[in-house]
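Review box. Two proteins, two foldings.
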Amino acid sequence: MAEAAVDNEVWNEPAGEAVPKRKISSRTKLTGKEKAAIFILSLADEDVKKILDGMQEDEVRELTRTIARIGSTPQDVVRAVRQEFLDRFELQQFDVRGGMNKVKDMISKALGKEKARQFLKELQQGPKNTPWEILNAMEPTLVATFLSNEHPQSIALILSQLQVEQASYVVDYLISDVQQEVILRMAKLGSLPPGALEDIEESLLTELEALGATRGGYAKEGGGGVKKVAELLNMMSRDLSDKLLAYLDEEDNPLAEEVRKEMFLFEDLLLMDDKSFQTLLREVNNDELLSALKGTDDRLKEKFFQNMSERAAEMLREDLEMMGPVKVADVESAQQSILKAARRLEAEGAIVIMGKGTDDVVL
């Protein structure tokens, strides 16, 4: 739609209901909000209801305000807006990868975090043979309660054997002082000699018998150390990981710096070369990208824009402009999802993230 001067006029309304309306013509340059309003107005009532039901209150308020200002719209403008919507839809990247991680994402959005964990338990089959399998399947709140009377060193050893995501949830439910001690001790854990965890395993199995555990197998050697703590902090909320890093700084600054070098934060995406960045973008869906970029600094936004087609970048800018407030937790969740994709691609050798860890890159 070519740019042109905008015609504005006040249309006749019943007394007390005068609304300044914008007269739309084929020469009018529409804003993103106006395009959304015109698209909504072109839909059947039942479809409009479904869309509005999925929007936040402030988004509905902004949309209805825009609709109230729009007068009669020519059919060629309506067709152009609907065509642009279809173009956006076709340009969107869809992640159709299956697996348990996808199941977790889907049911977490549909059921909420707590119900999703319970649902995932029902998907798991077969008996749990080791205490680590049992603890990984338990609610994190129960694991935290179960470990509450243990010494921080024992908790550090136990958590070092759990899946990173589960361990991060458990740490979140520990009291603040214990969190700090456990993270510090985990960071200092080195490789353990064979059999070092056997006594702990036997003791845990005895205490977990009520849950139907069966004996068999031993924990892997090691499991702690700087890398494990970095992975753990990456999974936590930014607020909690910052607090625990600050504590590590006070207790052992060189150790804290080692942990930082192993950590991978959303801002570190700036370190990626353009080819790697474009590979990552193909793995990210539009909704996650929008939430992740909400509130990020301009440098990182530009990094995304520069690695997209001009049209896709323009659409993303418009979507960000139209987007209402987003919960911090939702922003962090979206960023973590993108970081998980980046870590997976790096492990597969598909991308290179320069400047993190100890592996140097020769260009």
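Next protein.
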Amino acid sequence: MASWKDFLHNVASDADAQFDRLKNKLFGRLDAEKPYKIVYYRGFGSPTAVWLKGRVLRQRDLSTPSDHDTFWQNLLATYQRFESDEVPNVTVRVDAFGTSYTTVTDNEGYFELTINPPDDLPPGRAWFPVQYALDNVVQPATELNPDNVAQPVEKAGYMMISPPFSKFGVISDIDDTVLVTDATNLLQTARLTFLGNAYSRLPFAGIGAFYRALQSGPVTTLFNPIYFVSSSPWNLYDLLVDFFRIQGIPKGPLLLRDFGLNKEMLSSGGHHTHKLGMIRKVLDVNPQLPFVLIGDSGQQDPEIYSQVVRENPGRILAIYIRDVSEDVRDEAVRELISTTDTYNVPMLLVSDTVAAAEHAASLGLIDPDTIPEIRADRRADKE
């Protein structure tokens, strides 16, 4: 007998499909005037494999955020992010390392591709260019192109490949780890998400300096890759990119998830399943690297990271969990700390960034000389 969750999933999936069909039928003519837009998400990989992902939409560019944007400007930008008109079943050409590849968008306009880089990559480089194009599509006539002169649909992007000299990688949560979200409070999360922008969102104090120290490692000539995994929707990608840039947080791939009425989004295990899957992907394409994991106690990060430790003995160097929850939750986290300790992996429940940084320095993960900078960054962020 089907459960109520299965019933809800079936109803929601059917409603989602029906809505997409109705929207395409009603707004097809209006969408014909919207420009095509290729949204690329930073690719990542190692010298053996690179994973690329993006999306094709009919959407005008969002305005650049500022620290003077009003309530209504932020609300309009959020509406534009979520009211995206995806382009399904279109061929995307990907040019990388002198080779062309093709892939096709799915029903939500997303495309994915895994490629093998050449053997002669420059040893001291981490970021490489990649070009995306829609070969058989041209932009419609717009105010900027009233004569309807054929214009190609192209987008230049970058991919990150961990260099051979990287000593470890970092996988970090975003909500309530890097970015103050209060993810356990639905109304507060919605207010911050829908009514704020990259300038109004707050980082946890000292996080930028700590992540820069981890990327540099104990020797400042190193480059340790940092990956950000979150259950936030891909629609917020540009907001997060702007936020990281403004706060001085090192650039890295952002691994988000699709926003839709599907079983994964509706079930309580959707968050767990998505984050665990993305972490496994990062580990798989970087088989040569151990990792540091950073998260918070508000949701399921300790449970997810504990499972990662069990699945990958010897590959996790340390786990830092920011304490953002009640005492009752802390007891459950401490039990997981005991579990990871049996695998010789320290999991620390920390009150602030400096505590995590001091422990990382004691393990030789960061240069101890960066601790004063992290303390100063924490003071500046609090002010």
